[in-house]
UniProtKB/TrEMBL annotation:
Coiled coil: none annotated. Keywords: Acyltransferase, Transferase. This is GNAT family N-acetyltransferase. SUPFAM superfamilies: Acyl-CoA N-acyltransferases (Nat).
Amino acid sequence: MTIWKELAAFAEMETPRLYLRPLRFSDVEDFYQLVSDPENLAFVFPAILDKEEATEALVREGMQAPLGVWGMEDKEKGCLIGMIRFEKIQEGSRQAEIGYLLRKDFRGKGLMTEALKTLVFLAFNSLQLRELALVTHEENRASQAVAKRVGFQLIRSYKGSDRYSHKVRKYCLFGLSQTSYQQLTEEIEEKDDYH
């Protein structure tokens, strides 16, 4: 089965507190709330203050090519609170990058860690990817903490041009291989066996 067929099979997933699902046009209000607040997007892209532009971004970024893109719906509130996606999927070398964003009022609750763990599990167990990458701005400590909690390791820090402001910024590249993930999983299972 190709990566794309597998992604289609897992277009909708559930975690204890989230529905990971395709974005819908009915998400426009929640999506606008997410992308119009600069605090939600400090490390992603400039806020989109015009509702029509936000609607276009929802369609273009989340609905036009939906495989590998999930809206994060909070089960309790029943609203879209963020997005998580595979980016730069390289089917031949079995690699991908993961990107995500979350509304500020839902941060600090472990929701992004929950979603990221689900995508990592999918990547290595169903998609048979070999390596995952995750890039953060150097000052985005919260995103780095999420990556580390899931098992990503810092590969390197580097300077690069921000794609929106075109200013030079510092970035951190994190990586997780299928082999490292399997070792972490085995260690966790061993600890569980002893408790």
